[in-house]
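Researcher: Next entry in the queue.
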Amino acid sequence: MAELQRHAQDAPSGQDEKLSLGDREQRMLALEREWWKYSGAKEQAIRDLFNMSATHYYQLLNALIDTEAALAHDPMLVKRLRRLRSTRQKARSARRLGADI
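Model: Structure for this entry, 101 residues:
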């Protein structure tokens, strides 16, 4: 992700830099923590908050949840999003193969 920023660790041992999330990535994860009551409300919020299409947002989100920085920031949310993505991928694969899951 382009907005991932590197910050040096405070440890004097000169360890590798760790990744931290930028403001946009933190706002994306905060949006994913919310529950949406009405159809289309989330897509409208994505357009309003991030000025991008829902398709582009989900592409960025999928890349974001694969990062260690996102996992460190909100482990339960990221694991849930990864699990949901995996379930959807399995369902798509099963439909292509004509099998029920």
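Model: The beta strands are 5-7, 18-20.
Researcher: Noted, moving on.
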